[in-house]
Amino acid sequence: MVVLDATIVNIALPSMQQDLGMTDADRHWAITAYALAFGGLLLLGGRVSSALSHRRSFAIGLVGFALASGLGGAAENAGVLIAARAGQGVFAALLAPAALSLLILTFIDAKERGVAFGVFAGVGAGGAALGVVAGGLLTEYADWRWTLYINIPMAALALAGVTFLLRDRATGNLRHLDIPGVLLSAAGLVALVYGFSQAEPRGWGDPQVLILLTGGVLLLVLFVVVEAKSRQALLPLHIVTHRTRGVAFLSVCAMFIAMFGFYLFVSYYTQTILGYSPVKAGMTLLVNAVSTTVGAMLIAGRLQGRLAPNTLIAGSLVSSALGMLILTQLEVDSSHVFAVFLTPSMILTGIGLGCLLAVATNRATDELDWAEAGVASATYNTVQQMGAAFGTALLNSIATSVTASYLADRGNRPGDISAGTVHGYAVALWVAFGTLIVGAALVALLGSGDARGSKTSPEAETSTT
Length: 465
Known about the structure:
Oligomer: single chain
Number of helices: 18
Low-confidence stretches: 451-465
Order of helices and strands: HHHHHHHHHHHHHHHHHH
């Protein structure tokens, strides 16, 4: 549900804009408001989740997310819709770390843990692709409001299962909350996410974009300095400097930089070049979603314990890179595109994404006790959000600038527009390919010498018991 809502409104956006009278300049806030609130408040959400107990936080997150979704679906003007989307982001920032933390603390046996994280990764990774499918279907056959209303029955179903969840204890309280850390992290992350979202339309050299990105980096540097000296740090630095978790965070960031640009290009290519309807374009991504689930639940589950975790992670990055490589060979007049290019690319990228998330989620949350599960889960989700935001902005701006240069070299002839667009996508996908290969090389280098598997620390096991 959390991942779904990052993409489900994209296809519905034109209908939302028409119904609510949104301007072209303001319509992006229906997407940006969710991303800013979610990405900016994740670290705080992780700390709150630990303080309230993860089970209680999970239930609060579900109820709040459903209420915000209902408000957005019933919106009669743009202001209410944007506020509701921001509200979804706020509760998603509590819900996401609480959900992952419950998984960490429930499954301590290595084999069961691997299966659990495989299921979790498959469902989560498939959500991004399924969001596009669901958005198209609901907008075309129902109403755009159902892209938000759909969360209410989903949240109710999940809430009904809360009684079966592990009863964990609250660790710490919010009386000694690291306020400077909260403010610096939230401001820094919001500045980066918003800066990335504005980089493509405005350009990376735009003063506002430069101020946002530079300010975001400086705020996060100051955040690290403050956390190193704080006794009640919002993010204890050993969470990210731990070698195993660091490699996991690096690999996930590289994968999300590449994959979110990939989803964008496939959606645009199938609709603008191949002439697919929004629903058909979304259904194309189902191949990727199914492959992601297979990779996470079946392939990774079978290989964990037989191969070193970092070998699996590096191999997953290479698999997705090969999928990107196939699409770089597309030409505007390529034939049998779905069978020869799209299908094998979707399968390879999906298997790579699923396998990586199943293994990396386990590694990123390894050797943690009750008190640290929430903040580590929040950090993991933050890395995903930053990678997705940066990748979308970077690859989209590369594609558009390459296309513009291609058309300028040929005198902007109308017949060259499609060829220039495909050329721009190909160059951007080469960058995505390089990102994944470099990520795989760094994982192999930094992870050399790691054990074949990982297990929960004695402290964490004792705490859970």
